[in-house]
Task: structure prediction
Amino acid sequence: MNVPPEEYRTIEAPRLRDFARDCLAAAGLRRDHAAQIAELLANSEVRGVRSHGLRLLNGYVRFLQNGDINPAPEVAEVQETATSVLVDADGGFGYVPMMAATERAIGKAREQGMASGAVRHMGHYGAAGHYVRRAVEAGFFAFSVQGAHPDFERKRHLRLPAAYWGNPPFCFGLPAGDEPAVILDGGTTLMADCRDDDLQDRIPAAFFKSMGLTAVATALGGAFVGQSSPRTDGDGRTWRGGGNGGCILVVDIGLHVEAQEFRAGVDHLVRGVRETMAPVGGHERADLPGGVEARLEARYRSEGVPVGVEDLTQLAETAAAVGIAPLA
Result:
């Protein structure tokens, strides 16, 4: 999915951001939240992460129009320690509260060496990389995940193969020095694009790793942040799209060694892969996660983002649904 489209129009990132903001605001979302979400969606586009860019707008608009998401949430901190903060999202999208929890965790990690930010009762928070990248930019190592309290009663009747019971987003981020940061941003299901039922026999390692990763992410984004509490269950019935939770762990890279030593080590790792390993099929160079995104971002911010023709058609439908002009 996250490959450059063959047929596309080139559009500047600020125009994509403004369009996304206007769509969300026209659908009823409070404008300050619409602006912040739009900025993050446009950031995904300029990094080539099309799966978590503006193509999400159609679903988000439906959530708002159907009353599944709170359009005017009152985001509030409900618990705090020297090394942690817990935010209640009030049934709104997860972007704003998760970024707020990230900023608070960064501030606490500067003082304590590490800190956790958590959010409960939120909707989709997009790519986990949004929050990890913010921490990495501030000079920290970070990990983030979104999960939920699993609804086994509903899934009991679906009888899905075990490795397909969820695909929570997660991300690890390591700041570098002269090289691009290492950003491992994805989903827990290693076979997300391969729904062949016999994969568990052909690739058992991927099958069982998917089960394990999904379980851990589900618990860290659910039970760990209080998403399965009676109060949160009640809120989830009010805002059906707000049944998720999430967390981020922010760690000072100078906790055990000098920060520059850490950065030099990551640089050595990135260069070593690039200079000594052969590219896999269809790729021009060997990269660690984050390398491709860094190159695309530099290019797309300068030249514009290639938006696929199919994506443009869907965005035009979304614009029509909320009564605004399509991308010109």
Notes: DSSP finds twelve helices and nine strands in the chain. Residues 95-112 form the longest helix (18 residues).
